[in-house]
Amino acid sequence: MEGTDHILVDGLVLLKIVKHCKDMLPECSYGQLLGLDFDDRTEITHCFPDLPPNVEESQEMIEAGDNYRLDMLRCLREVNVDHNIVGWYASIYMSSFVDENTITAQFRYQSEVPRSVMLVYDPMRTSLGTLHVRAFRLTPVFMELFKAHHFTQDDLINENFSEEQIFEEVPIVIHNPAIIQAMLYSWHVDSTLKLKGDFTRLDLSSSAYLEKCVQSLTESVEDLCQENSAFEIKKRQTARQRQIVEQEQLKKLGEDVSEETLRKLVPDPSKLQVLLAANQVQSYCDSITKFAGHSFDKLFAMGSLHSSKV
Amino acid sequence: MPGSEMMFVPSDNAISVKVHPTVLFGIMDHFSRRSDLRERVIGAVLGSVALDGVVEIKNYFPIPHTDRDQQIDVDVEHFQTMLDMHRQVNNKEVIVGWYGTGRDVAVNDFHLHSFFSSKCAKPVFLVVDAALQGSSSIQLRGFVARQQSIGGQPWGLGFAQVPCEIKAFEAERVAIDFITKSIIKGPRRVAPSAPMLQEGAAIRSSINKLVSLLDTSLDVVSQVQSGERAADADLGRGISRAVGAVPSLSPEEFKEMFDGAVQDVLMVTYLTSLTKTQLALSQKLNTISSL
Question: Across the interface, do B177 and A80 touch by the CB < 8 Å criterion?
Answer without folding.
Answer: no
